[in-house]
Inverse folding.
Protein backbone atom coordinates (compact mmCIF):
# COMPACT_ATOMS: atom_id res chain seq x y z
CA UNK A 1 0.00 0.00 0.00
CA UNK A 2 1.09 3.59 -0.50
CA UNK A 3 3.09 5.06 2.39
CA UNK A 4 1.90 8.12 4.21
CA UNK A 5 3.50 11.08 2.45
CA UNK A 6 6.29 12.87 4.22
CA UNK A 7 4.82 15.94 5.90
CA UNK A 8 6.29 18.27 8.48
CA UNK A 9 4.86 17.76 11.95
CA UNK A 10 5.70 21.29 13.01
CA UNK A 11 2.89 23.78 13.22
CA UNK A 12 2.58 26.50 10.61
CA UNK A 13 3.64 30.01 11.53
CA UNK A 14 0.78 31.69 13.40
CA UNK A 15 -1.01 28.40 14.16
CA UNK A 16 -2.46 28.13 17.66
CA UNK A 17 -0.49 26.11 20.20
CA UNK A 18 -1.69 22.58 20.90
CA UNK A 19 -4.32 22.37 23.63
CA UNK A 20 -4.29 19.47 26.05
CA UNK A 21 -7.37 17.24 25.90
CA UNK A 22 -8.90 14.37 23.93
CA UNK A 23 -7.73 13.87 20.36
CA UNK A 24 -10.40 14.74 17.77
CA UNK A 25 -11.31 11.49 15.90
CA UNK A 26 -10.08 11.10 12.35
CA UNK A 27 -13.53 11.23 10.72
CA UNK A 28 -14.23 14.52 12.52
CA UNK A 29 -10.85 15.96 11.57
CA UNK A 30 -10.85 14.86 7.90
CA UNK A 31 -13.34 15.73 5.17
CA UNK A 32 -14.86 13.68 2.38
CA UNK A 33 -13.28 14.18 -1.03
CA UNK A 34 -14.43 13.03 -4.49
CA UNK A 35 -12.79 13.46 -7.88
CA UNK A 36 -12.92 11.77 -11.31
CA UNK A 37 -10.45 8.93 -11.82
CA UNK A 38 -11.20 7.62 -15.34
CA UNK A 39 -13.84 7.78 -18.07
CA UNK A 40 -14.03 5.19 -20.84
CA UNK A 41 -16.64 4.15 -23.43
CA UNK A 42 -16.70 0.76 -25.15
CA UNK A 43 -19.00 -1.21 -27.43
CA UNK A 44 -19.12 -4.91 -26.48
CA UNK A 45 -18.36 -7.50 -29.15
CA UNK A 46 -18.27 -11.29 -29.41
CA UNK A 47 -14.96 -11.23 -27.48
CA UNK A 48 -14.07 -9.90 -24.05
CA UNK A 49 -12.45 -6.44 -23.90
CA UNK A 50 -9.79 -5.44 -21.36
CA UNK A 51 -9.75 -1.88 -20.05
CA UNK A 52 -7.00 -0.31 -17.97
CA UNK A 53 -5.04 -0.37 -15.85
CA UNK A 54 -6.34 2.99 -14.66
CA UNK A 55 -4.27 4.86 -12.08
CA UNK A 56 -6.16 5.95 -8.99
CA UNK A 57 -5.46 9.66 -8.36
CA UNK A 58 -3.20 10.25 -5.35
CA UNK A 59 -5.10 12.06 -2.62
CA UNK A 60 -5.43 11.63 1.14
CA UNK A 61 -6.80 8.24 2.23
CA UNK A 62 -8.52 5.98 -0.30
CA UNK A 63 -12.04 4.93 0.74
CA UNK A 64 -13.66 3.45 -2.39
CA UNK A 65 -13.74 3.64 -6.16
CA UNK A 66 -17.25 4.59 -7.27
CA UNK A 67 -18.31 3.28 -10.69
CA UNK A 68 -21.09 4.89 -12.72
CA UNK A 69 -22.18 2.66 -15.60
CA UNK A 70 -24.40 4.01 -18.40
CA UNK A 71 -25.36 1.97 -21.48
CA UNK A 72 -26.94 3.81 -24.40
CA UNK A 73 -27.90 3.22 -28.04
CA UNK A 74 -28.84 -0.46 -27.68
CA UNK A 75 -31.85 -2.07 -29.36
CA UNK A 76 -33.10 -5.28 -27.79
CA UNK A 77 -35.27 -6.48 -30.72
CA UNK A 78 -35.70 -10.24 -30.33
CA UNK A 79 -32.76 -10.37 -27.93
CA UNK A 80 -33.02 -11.66 -24.34
CA UNK A 81 -31.07 -10.25 -21.40
CA UNK A 82 -29.20 -12.70 -19.21
CA UNK A 83 -30.76 -12.83 -15.70
CA UNK A 84 -27.53 -11.29 -14.31
CA UNK A 85 -27.73 -8.28 -16.66
CA UNK A 86 -26.79 -5.43 -16.37
CA UNK A 87 -24.21 -6.35 -13.73
CA UNK A 88 -22.69 -9.05 -15.92
CA UNK A 89 -21.47 -6.31 -18.25
CA UNK A 90 -18.24 -6.87 -16.31
CA UNK A 91 -16.34 -10.12 -16.71
CA UNK A 92 -13.91 -8.93 -14.04
CA UNK A 93 -13.25 -5.96 -11.77
CA UNK A 94 -10.07 -5.62 -9.73
CA UNK A 95 -8.11 -3.13 -7.66
CA UNK A 96 -4.39 -3.75 -7.11
CA UNK A 97 -2.10 -2.13 -4.56
CA UNK A 98 1.03 -0.20 -5.53
CA UNK A 99 3.02 -3.44 -5.72
CA UNK A 100 0.52 -5.11 -8.04
CA UNK A 101 -1.02 -7.37 -5.40
CA UNK A 102 -4.83 -7.68 -5.56
CA UNK A 103 -6.92 -6.02 -2.85
CA UNK A 104 -10.30 -6.46 -4.55
CA UNK A 105 -10.91 -9.29 -6.99
CA UNK A 106 -10.77 -10.03 -9.70
CA UNK A 107 -14.54 -10.52 -9.29
CA UNK A 108 -17.21 -10.50 -11.98
CA UNK A 109 -19.81 -7.75 -12.00
CA UNK A 110 -22.59 -9.84 -10.47
CA UNK A 111 -20.38 -10.89 -7.56
CA UNK A 112 -19.37 -7.24 -7.11
CA UNK A 113 -23.07 -6.36 -6.86
CA UNK A 114 -23.44 -8.68 -3.85
CA UNK A 115 -20.18 -7.47 -2.31
CA UNK A 116 -21.79 -4.00 -2.38
CA UNK A 117 -25.14 -5.12 -0.98
CA UNK A 118 -23.90 -7.37 1.82
CA UNK A 119 -20.79 -5.34 2.61
CA UNK A 120 -23.16 -2.43 3.39
CA UNK A 121 -20.63 0.25 2.51
CA UNK A 122 -23.33 2.86 1.91
CA UNK A 123 -25.41 2.11 4.97
CA UNK A 124 -29.08 1.51 4.25
CA UNK A 125 -28.73 2.30 0.54
CA UNK A 126 -26.08 -0.24 -0.42
CA UNK A 127 -28.16 -2.05 -3.07
CA UNK A 128 -27.41 -0.47 -6.49
CA UNK A 129 -30.77 -1.74 -7.75
CA UNK A 130 -32.64 0.66 -5.46
CA UNK A 131 -31.08 3.98 -6.54
CA UNK A 132 -33.59 6.34 -8.20
CA UNK A 133 -31.75 6.30 -11.53
CA UNK A 134 -31.28 2.52 -11.77
CA UNK A 135 -32.30 1.11 -15.15
CA UNK A 136 -32.11 -2.64 -15.79
CA UNK A 137 -32.96 -2.69 -19.50
CA UNK A 138 -30.48 -3.07 -22.37
CA UNK A 139 -29.74 0.67 -21.98
CA UNK A 140 -28.84 0.27 -18.32
CA UNK A 141 -27.70 2.75 -15.68
CA UNK A 142 -26.41 1.81 -12.25
CA UNK A 143 -23.71 2.52 -9.65
CA UNK A 144 -21.27 0.17 -7.92
CA UNK A 145 -18.31 0.57 -5.62
CA UNK A 146 -14.96 -1.16 -5.48
CA UNK A 147 -14.88 -1.24 -1.67
CA UNK A 148 -11.79 -0.47 0.42
CA UNK A 149 -12.97 1.21 3.63
CA UNK A 150 -14.66 -1.06 6.18
CA UNK A 151 -16.36 1.45 8.49
CA UNK A 152 -17.38 4.97 7.47
CA UNK A 153 -17.78 5.91 11.16
CA UNK A 154 -14.10 5.41 11.98
CA UNK A 155 -12.42 5.29 8.57
CA UNK A 156 -11.03 1.84 9.40
CA UNK A 157 -9.74 0.16 6.25
CA UNK A 158 -9.14 3.35 4.26
CA UNK A 159 -5.58 3.41 2.93
CA UNK A 160 -2.93 6.09 2.53
CA UNK A 161 -2.94 7.27 -1.07
CA UNK A 162 -0.46 10.14 -1.24
CA UNK A 163 2.23 8.96 -3.66
CA UNK A 164 1.47 9.80 -7.30
CA UNK A 165 4.53 7.80 -8.38
CA UNK A 166 3.09 4.61 -6.86
CA UNK A 167 -0.60 4.48 -7.72
CA UNK A 168 -3.30 1.96 -6.95
CA UNK A 169 -4.63 0.53 -10.21
CA UNK A 170 -8.09 -0.49 -11.44
CA UNK A 171 -8.51 -3.15 -14.13
CA UNK A 172 -11.80 -3.89 -15.88
CA UNK A 173 -12.80 -6.55 -18.40
CA UNK A 174 -16.04 -6.34 -20.40
CA UNK A 175 -17.92 -9.57 -21.11
CA UNK A 176 -18.68 -10.68 -24.67
CA UNK A 177 -22.24 -10.10 -25.87
CA UNK A 178 -22.83 -13.86 -25.79
CA UNK A 179 -22.53 -13.67 -21.99
CA UNK A 180 -24.57 -10.49 -21.49
CA UNK A 181 -27.49 -11.80 -23.57
CA UNK A 182 -28.93 -15.30 -23.86
CA UNK A 183 -30.27 -14.27 -27.28
CA UNK A 184 -28.40 -11.61 -29.27
CA UNK A 185 -30.02 -8.16 -29.44
CA UNK A 186 -30.50 -6.19 -32.62
CA UNK A 187 -27.87 -3.67 -31.52
CA UNK A 188 -25.62 -3.94 -28.44
CA UNK A 189 -25.31 -0.74 -26.40
CA UNK A 190 -22.37 1.58 -26.02
CA UNK A 191 -21.18 1.35 -22.43
CA UNK A 192 -19.68 4.33 -20.65
CA UNK A 193 -17.87 3.63 -17.38
CA UNK A 194 -16.86 6.51 -15.14
CA UNK A 195 -14.72 5.92 -12.07
CA UNK A 196 -14.51 8.34 -9.14
CA UNK A 197 -12.07 8.43 -6.25
CA UNK A 198 -13.78 8.58 -2.86
CA UNK A 199 -11.27 9.65 -0.22
CA UNK A 200 -10.63 11.38 3.10
CA UNK A 201 -8.58 14.56 3.18
CA UNK A 202 -5.35 14.61 5.20
CA UNK A 203 -6.13 16.34 8.55
CA UNK A 204 -3.91 18.98 10.10
CA UNK A 205 -2.08 18.18 13.32
CA UNK A 206 -4.33 20.60 15.23
CA UNK A 207 -7.60 22.36 14.43
CA UNK A 208 -8.19 26.11 14.43
CA UNK A 209 -8.69 26.02 18.21
CA UNK A 210 -5.38 24.23 18.75
CA UNK A 211 -6.96 20.87 19.65
CA UNK A 212 -4.99 17.81 18.58
CA UNK A 213 -6.49 15.78 15.74
CA UNK A 214 -6.02 12.17 14.62
CA UNK A 215 -4.07 12.34 11.36
CA UNK A 216 -4.68 8.75 10.21
CA UNK A 217 -7.75 6.47 10.32
CA UNK A 218 -8.33 4.09 13.23
CA UNK A 219 -6.01 1.04 13.01
CA UNK A 220 -4.42 2.46 9.87
CA UNK A 221 -2.99 -0.29 7.70
CA UNK A 222 -5.88 -2.66 8.40
CA UNK A 223 -6.92 -3.87 4.95
CA UNK A 224 -9.90 -5.84 3.68
CA UNK A 225 -9.68 -8.17 0.70
CA UNK A 226 -12.17 -9.80 -1.67
CA UNK A 227 -11.25 -13.02 -3.48
CA UNK A 228 -13.11 -15.96 -4.99
CA UNK A 229 -12.89 -19.59 -6.02
CA UNK A 230 -15.21 -21.92 -7.93
CA UNK A 231 -16.17 -25.37 -6.62
CA UNK A 232 -17.85 -28.05 -8.74
CA UNK A 233 -20.88 -29.57 -7.02
CA UNK A 234 -22.26 -33.07 -7.60
CA UNK A 235 -25.61 -34.50 -6.55
CA UNK A 236 -25.41 -35.84 -2.99
CA UNK A 237 -22.86 -35.15 -0.23
CA UNK A 238 -20.35 -32.36 -0.86
CA UNK A 239 -17.52 -30.75 1.08
CA UNK A 240 -16.62 -27.18 0.09
CA UNK A 241 -13.20 -26.50 1.61
CA UNK A 242 -12.57 -22.76 1.88
CA UNK A 243 -8.90 -22.05 1.03
CA UNK A 244 -8.87 -18.35 1.96
CA UNK A 245 -7.85 -18.47 5.63
CA UNK A 246 -5.21 -16.75 7.75
CA UNK A 247 -7.02 -13.46 8.36
CA UNK A 248 -10.27 -12.39 10.01
CA UNK A 249 -13.26 -13.52 7.92
CA UNK A 250 -15.74 -10.65 7.55
CA UNK A 251 -18.22 -12.43 5.29
CA UNK A 252 -18.56 -15.33 2.87
CA UNK A 253 -20.89 -14.94 -0.12
CA UNK A 254 -22.01 -17.94 -2.18
CA UNK A 255 -23.55 -17.84 -5.67
CA UNK A 256 -24.88 -21.25 -6.75
CA UNK A 257 -25.49 -22.11 -10.43
CA UNK A 258 -26.63 -25.26 -12.18
CA UNK A 259 -24.79 -26.75 -15.14
CA UNK A 260 -27.38 -26.04 -17.85
CA UNK A 261 -27.05 -23.48 -20.64
CA UNK A 262 -26.18 -19.93 -19.53
CA UNK A 263 -25.41 -21.21 -15.99
CA UNK A 264 -28.60 -19.97 -14.28
CA UNK A 265 -28.56 -19.38 -10.53
CA UNK A 266 -30.18 -22.24 -8.61
CA UNK A 267 -30.86 -22.66 -4.88
CA UNK A 268 -30.82 -26.45 -5.11
CA UNK A 269 -27.10 -26.52 -6.00
CA UNK A 270 -26.31 -25.34 -2.45
CA UNK A 271 -26.65 -27.77 0.50
CA UNK A 272 -29.87 -27.79 2.51
CA UNK A 273 -29.11 -27.89 5.39
CA UNK A 274 -25.52 -26.61 5.26
CA UNK A 275 -22.96 -27.09 8.04
CA UNK A 276 -20.05 -24.66 8.50
CA UNK A 277 -17.15 -26.45 10.22
CA UNK A 278 -14.41 -24.32 11.83
CA UNK A 279 -11.50 -26.60 12.74
CA UNK A 280 -13.09 -29.32 14.89
CA UNK A 281 -16.19 -27.26 15.68
CA UNK A 282 -19.57 -27.23 13.98
CA UNK A 283 -20.05 -23.47 13.84
CA UNK A 284 -23.32 -23.21 11.89
CA UNK A 285 -25.91 -25.85 10.95
CA UNK A 286 -28.80 -24.21 9.12
CA UNK A 287 -31.47 -24.79 6.52
CA UNK A 288 -31.71 -22.54 3.48
CA UNK A 289 -34.85 -20.91 4.84
CA UNK A 290 -32.99 -19.99 8.03
CA UNK A 291 -30.08 -18.54 6.01
CA UNK A 292 -32.48 -16.48 3.88
CA UNK A 293 -34.26 -15.13 6.97
CA UNK A 294 -30.89 -14.17 8.52
CA UNK A 295 -30.05 -12.27 5.32
CA UNK A 296 -33.27 -10.30 5.67
CA UNK A 297 -32.65 -9.53 9.35
CA UNK A 298 -29.04 -8.45 8.90
CA UNK A 299 -29.71 -6.54 5.65
CA UNK A 300 -33.11 -4.82 5.96
CA UNK A 301 -32.84 -3.61 2.38
CA UNK A 302 -33.42 -7.22 1.31
CA UNK A 303 -37.05 -6.96 2.31
CA UNK A 304 -38.38 -9.66 0.01
CA UNK A 305 -37.67 -13.12 -1.35
CA UNK A 306 -36.43 -13.78 -4.87
CA UNK A 307 -38.82 -12.70 -7.60
CA UNK A 308 -41.01 -10.58 -5.30
CA UNK A 309 -39.36 -7.17 -4.98
CA UNK A 310 -40.54 -4.98 -2.13
CA UNK A 311 -40.84 -1.20 -2.12
CA UNK A 312 -37.83 -0.84 0.19
CA UNK A 313 -35.52 -3.24 -1.61
CA UNK A 314 -34.92 -5.50 -4.58
CA UNK A 315 -34.75 -8.69 -2.55
CA UNK A 316 -32.48 -11.70 -2.44
CA UNK A 317 -31.71 -13.29 -5.80
CA UNK A 318 -32.13 -17.01 -6.39
CA UNK A 319 -28.89 -18.87 -5.73
CA UNK A 320 -27.37 -16.23 -3.42
CA UNK A 321 -26.47 -17.18 0.16
CA UNK A 322 -24.11 -15.63 2.69
CA UNK A 323 -22.50 -16.08 6.07
CA UNK A 324 -22.09 -12.59 7.47
CA UNK A 325 -19.86 -11.74 10.42
CA UNK A 326 -19.90 -8.03 9.53
CA UNK A 327 -22.69 -7.02 11.88
CA UNK A 328 -22.50 -4.07 14.26
CA UNK A 329 -23.88 -3.99 17.79
CA UNK A 330 -27.23 -3.02 16.25
CA UNK A 331 -27.38 -6.44 14.56
CA UNK A 332 -27.24 -5.04 11.03
CA UNK A 333 -24.51 -5.23 8.41
CA UNK A 334 -22.04 -2.40 7.94
CA UNK A 335 -19.98 0.03 10.03
CA UNK A 336 -18.80 -3.05 11.89
CA UNK A 337 -15.79 -3.68 14.11
CA UNK A 338 -13.73 -6.85 14.58
CA UNK A 339 -16.05 -8.05 17.37
CA UNK A 340 -17.97 -10.57 15.27
CA UNK A 341 -15.38 -11.38 12.59
CA UNK A 342 -14.32 -15.02 12.40
CA UNK A 343 -10.61 -15.48 13.30
CA UNK A 344 -8.50 -17.92 11.30
CA UNK A 345 -4.83 -18.81 10.81
CA UNK A 346 -3.13 -20.56 7.88
CA UNK A 347 -3.73 -23.96 9.50
CA UNK A 348 -7.48 -23.38 10.04
CA UNK A 349 -9.79 -25.90 8.34
CA UNK A 350 -12.89 -24.00 7.26
CA UNK A 351 -15.48 -25.83 5.18
CA UNK A 352 -19.16 -26.05 4.23
CA UNK A 353 -20.66 -29.55 4.23
CA UNK A 354 -24.02 -30.89 3.14
CA UNK A 355 -26.10 -32.71 0.55
CA UNK A 356 -27.01 -30.98 -2.73
CA UNK A 357 -29.99 -31.85 -4.91
CA UNK A 358 -28.62 -30.51 -8.21
CA UNK A 359 -25.20 -30.58 -9.87
CA UNK A 360 -23.48 -27.33 -10.80
CA UNK A 361 -20.96 -24.91 -9.32
CA UNK A 362 -20.72 -22.61 -6.34
CA UNK A 363 -18.79 -19.36 -6.54
CA UNK A 364 -17.44 -18.61 -3.08
CA UNK A 365 -16.48 -14.97 -2.45
CA UNK A 366 -14.44 -14.43 0.72
CA UNK A 367 -14.17 -10.99 2.35
CA UNK A 368 -11.32 -11.13 4.86
CA UNK A 369 -9.45 -8.53 6.86
CA UNK A 370 -5.73 -8.33 7.68
CA UNK A 371 -5.59 -6.41 10.98
CA UNK A 372 -2.79 -4.15 12.12
CA UNK A 373 -2.17 -4.07 15.86
CA UNK A 374 -0.34 -1.25 17.63
CA UNK A 375 0.98 -3.55 20.37
CA UNK A 376 0.82 -7.36 19.97
CA UNK A 377 -0.30 -7.84 23.63
CA UNK A 378 -3.42 -5.79 22.81
CA UNK A 379 -4.73 -8.58 20.56
CA UNK A 380 -7.18 -11.21 21.67
CA UNK A 381 -6.33 -14.87 21.10
CA UNK A 382 -8.74 -17.75 20.81
CA UNK A 383 -7.21 -20.95 22.16
CA UNK A 384 -7.03 -23.90 19.78
CA UNK A 385 -7.30 -27.34 21.34
CA UNK A 386 -5.97 -28.93 18.17
CA UNK A 387 -2.46 -27.79 19.10
CA UNK A 388 -2.29 -25.27 16.27
CA UNK A 389 -1.44 -21.61 16.62
CA UNK A 390 -3.97 -19.40 18.35
CA UNK A 391 -6.49 -17.56 16.23
CA UNK A 392 -5.77 -13.83 15.98
CA UNK A 393 -8.32 -11.11 16.32
CA UNK A 394 -8.15 -7.50 17.37
CA UNK A 395 -9.58 -5.38 20.15
CA UNK A 396 -10.28 -1.70 20.12
Amino acid sequence: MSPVGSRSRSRAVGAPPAVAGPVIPFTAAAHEHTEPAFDVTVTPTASSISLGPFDVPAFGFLRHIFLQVDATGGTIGAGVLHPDYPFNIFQSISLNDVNGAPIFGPLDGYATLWANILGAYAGGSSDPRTVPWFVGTINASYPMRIPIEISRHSGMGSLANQNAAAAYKVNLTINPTTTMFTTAPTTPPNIRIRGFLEAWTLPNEVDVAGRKQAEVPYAHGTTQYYSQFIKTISVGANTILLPRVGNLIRQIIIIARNATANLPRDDTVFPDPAVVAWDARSLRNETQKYLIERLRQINPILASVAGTPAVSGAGRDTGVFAYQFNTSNSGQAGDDEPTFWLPTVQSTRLEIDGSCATAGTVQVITNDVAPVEVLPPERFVEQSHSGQLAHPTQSR
Notes: The domain at 23-213 is CATH 2.70.9.30 (Adenovirus Type 2 Hexon; domain 4).
